[in-house]
Description:
heterodimer; A: alpha+beta; 7-stranded mixed beta sheet; 5-stranded mixed beta sheet; B: Ubiquitin-like (UB roll); 2 domains
Amino acid sequence: xxxxxxxxxxxxxxxxxxxxxxxxxxxxxxxxxxxxxxxxxxxxxxxxxxxxxxxxxxxxxxxxxxxxxxxxxxxxxxxxxxxxxxxxxxxxxxxxxxxxxxxxxxxxxxxxxxxxxxxxxxxxxxxxxxxxxxxxxxxxxxxxxxxxxxxxxxxxxxxxxxxxxxxxxxxxxxxxxxxxxxxxxxxxxxxxxxxxxxxxxxxxxxxxxxxxxxxxxxxxxxxxxxxxxxxxxxxxxxxxxxxxxxxxxxxxxxxxxxxxxxxxxxxxxxxxxxxxxxxxxxxxxxxxxxxxxxxxxxxxxxxxxxxxxxxxxxxxxxxxxxxxxxxxxxxxxxxxxxxxxxxxxxxxxxxxxxxxxxxxxxxxxxxxxxxxxxxxxxxxxxxxxxxxxxxxxxxxxxxxxxxxxxxxxxxxxxxxxxxxxxxxxxxxxxxxxxxxxxxxxxxxxxxxxxxxxxxxxxxxxxxxxxxxxxxxxxxxxxxxxxxxxxxxxxxxxxxxxxxxxxxxxxxxxxxxxxxxxxxxxxxxxxxxxxxxxxxxxxxxxxxxxxxxxxxxxxxxxxxxxxxxxxxxxxxxxxxxxxxxxxxxxxxxxxxxxxxxxxxxxxxxxxxxxxxxxxxxxxxxxxxxxxxxxxxxxxxxxxxxxxxxxxxxxxxxxxxxxxxxxxxxxxxxxxxxxxxxxxxxxxxxxxxxxxxxxxxxxxxxxxxxxxxxxxxxxxxxxxxxxxxxxxxxxxxxxxxxxxxxxxxxxxx
Amino acid sequence: xxxxxxxxxxxxxxxxxxxxxxxxxxxxxxxxxxxxxxxxxxxxxxxxxxxxxxxxxxxxxxxxxxxxxxxxxxxxxxxxxxxxxxxxxxxxxxxxxxxxxxxxxxxxxxxxxxxxxxxxxxxxxxxxxxxxxxxxxxxxxxxxxxxxxxxx
Lengths: 747, 152
């Protein structure tokens, strides 16, 4: 079996600590840079819990609890990660209780949701945790029964000694096992013997969700808790000048109005400390409706910002960023990008001699693609609970990466990290936005100033107009063909505001003799951040649309054309490096070709578009089947082929891919955040179009490549290739190529 | 402020609030029934859907004074053990991803099946189109409604 390539250096080891209560835990420190100093305290659990590792707790009456280390935002890790522990622990999954772990990077590792990494980074440590706990139980039984540990077997939470006919439940030996040193290097199960992993298990929070239990940050409450809202500037490029709270303070239920500054001057921002507005007005009161109403009575004066410089420090790499003044508009942004694209750009990669190849070309095909800013629009708007006193801070809410925000909080509150407790609730969506914890820091400062437990709530309008959007992009592709219509050179030049998204080592790099990749960027005072498959979401859209047009110009089938290029990349790769595995890439194309009935005449009734992409360590291809519905193009059916290695929870994985396809269609067709004079033109769902049930396909068939490769992620990889497949199907449906998102606007 | 009598999930409550307060915020802030969600505040996303007199309403835009003394059903009151046919169908199809919009989806579907126990695909689309799901679980929502309709 092929081994998966890891793209980052990973340090994984087991660490055991004797706890005050006599229990034992195993901690995993996967990424040393995320480690916080000295925090080894255990979470408070009832005394009867015998902790076998940081992840497994068993009661004497045989209840097995498994802790989920990573926050849940719909990717279903609360089910799939504990499943991995349960597999090696050898327990009956139906009897397992799952609990979300608190923030503790020492005990639970990186604890971040992003880059489709949850399953990939926890796969090995969680298997080891389960296997170690099982071994400790076996040792405890062997000691008691006075036999060797090798003679002990387990099944479904039971221990057996065949020769003597003895048996016991895990719970019977949990207490004794907790006192046994944690073994290292315990043999793991063979993949073929898995009976929890690779078998569909229902969402462990399903019942809580359909019965409306308080699971989300917005649902959290505490005695004496106040509600806070902030008034941020109405436009990018504006800041607070002054305010008058007289009318607001007269409103019922209002406790306080004040202005706050988030980061002190000269504050060195980490990579996820992005915030749009540093100074804002805060209204604090008893209830949400009272605060909402009172905030409307604020009289606030705003003024234009001047150009500023900010210091960003992304995991140790420092850089200065200029934030320009001015009130930007979408129309002028697109015009600026068009002009900038004509000028020289930064060289990212060059293979062969593309200039000469283009000079000698019989035909040059050049196409330019654009995409707008996108707002994440998580269904649960940003919110966080904070109770900050002089001694400690408690923060509870929806957050993707507590380990990245805790050090910031520590600096802002001037409080050691050990005194800051962060609990992660279930998130009502994240899509990348909740990796930026500005709203958590705001909540903490508000609580400190108000001297009370406070929940900060963003209204939908606050949330949608705050920024941290997917950047707006453009990409120009050029291809050189010789007289025989062979591809001789490929050129990609991409840019964006304020970031570009060219991935120079992605397909078709490695497959074309003469290759050139360049980029440029335009500064802006609009903030941007990770948005489901950051960069890849547009890179895939533009590239896979261009591939389709290129195949047509060459008179080739679009799947066969891609397979030819991948064959070249595999057999005789161009350049030193490309970041995809040509075999796995080709594998999903072949699978989607077969499963979609690509060449079956019965499918001629559809306008079909294909796209395939590799990002975030997984490979996904889609065939989109379009029809006319009410005289408009409509995606009726999608066939997806996915290679993400071992599929931990198959039906949940299908759900994830289906959701990504629907989200992709929605954003490709309708997604757009525009600005006029710095003001977002969409501030709620009446103006920002989200895909609806009638616009979703009737059917999305998902097929996984079966292999035993360690699992990689699924949140992002199926999303990125949707856009190109939709564009290519639209061409077949309307006879017109679509270059500018959102496509529905061009119909 | 005014004292308003409410009948929520078969229980009587008297709340002293601004009569214009949307039912959503009375449920969430005053009665601590947080299953009903805030999504947009302008009746455009459906996350706040509840039943008033058996009809689906958007509670974020519905003043509490207009709901006085009328029977209100929220997700918490739909069934005692989460075994309403729609809840069971939701679990069978493992519909939710993030789960935030699902209470609103279910409550809207309850009203649909009450009016029309065996809706066609087109009728499901027409009724459910006002309930947004950012995770894109629409296919499973449609399937779960059909499953529940079969059992009903």
